[in-house]
Amino acid sequence: MALFSFLDREKSVAHPGYSRWLVPPAALAIHLAIGQVYSFSVFKIPLTEQIGITKPAPGDWTQPQVAWIFSLAIVMLGLSAALFGKWLETAGPRKAMFFSAVCFAAGFFVGDLGIALHQLWLLYVGYGVIGGVGLGLGYISPVSTLIKWFPDRPGLATGMAIMGFGGGAMIGSPLAIKLMAHFKTSTDVGIGPTFLIMGAVYFVFMMFGVFMIRVPREGWKPEGWSHDLKPNALISRHDVDVSTAVRTPQFYLLWIILCVNVTAGIGIIEQASPMIQDLFHGMITPVAAGGFVGLLSIFNMGGRFFWSSTSDYIGRKPTYFIFLGLGAALYLFLPMTGGDRMNNVKLFATVACVLISMYGGGFATIPAYLRDLFGSHNVSAIHGRLLTAWSTAGVLGPVLVNNMREYELAHGVDKAGAYQAVLHIMAGLLVVGFIANLLVRPVAEKYWLPDSVARNPEPSAH
Amino acid sequence: MAENTTKSSPAMIAAAWLLVSVPLAWGIYNTLLNAVKLFQAVPN
Question: Can you give the pLDDT at residue B2?
């Protein structure tokens, strides 16, 4: 359709002189918006009190029913990233970002209809399924474009975008709280109009990204970029097609690395508030524990930028050795800071913040690791398939943490002791990831696309 | 048709970054206000 022809890949090719520094804000506009999903918990209580207004009443939805909305959204994120990654490579980032904006906003609008009609299934379909597709499309859409604009610093580039996903919750949470407070009346919790406004605001914000995004011209490379950098065997100048990449051992090793890193991070995020209160019994109030959760979200976001940028200098493999090696040691150490041993809240918070920074860093550095191994040709599609590790960890992490803790408590272990067992298991998982990282080797020549070296500029140092 | 070779203006780049930085800074500010509560509660 001519009206939408501006979305075509060829219409988004940058003219000579277009600054690559306009591309990260375009990517950030998408990621800051879709990162809102991680603040969905602020809707949980209002959604369960729509009839009772101040407390749940007969006919109100229950917390477990409402929790499925978020779970569906995350599952759809992983599935749509895996399914549409290949399409994105041909359709281009602008079209993918546009459909991401449409789906994400439509998720809010259909959700609003569900709230107005008090039909929960509309929230499942709206925010969960349709919005979830928007999340998946939006998450992977700027990745390969950024890598092509920043062949000299792919970690920095993808770190900037994926940092936005971590930061999105920090915007979404206070925005939703303020809007609901504004629209709340004696007969309405105010969530309906909040959904409408958030859908509209996020759509406009994401459209800024749609209009700003550009793909570099064929053969473009950064001005003054030096070619005489030291070679690294783990950085391929060859491309691997997505359907071939998923048959390589490297893909599965990276899948394991991402899965264990995310699972371990969720082990803290999932239990952050009760964990600090139980480990420092009587010292930490629920309000202070809320502050701890806020602190973790800052380090989750900052770690994405810091670690992925650092990986440009020290290399992707060493960066993951830090995440997985230091991470395992810190998970073993963390329970020792608790009230019954060192009794040091600041040390506990510091260690937890470092761990969460590496959790975020694991997300942000993985696209550059994929680029190093498989080239930039199909990196979005490969990244999309790899995100199934995230979906798996999203289920595995909470199940592992909750079941292990329940098991320990049922066997007479006190609350603080139960956390120790959970954290030690997380350390064990990271050791598995460490071994997987150790096994990562350059992709064998038989997997390369023919003539792919001609498409790729010289790689950066790491 | 002549190809557009205009260089992106620094003002446009700054405006683009400002547009995404302002909401992010607002979000970080709100989160920091919340995070401070942890340290207000910690005696050591």
Answer: 56
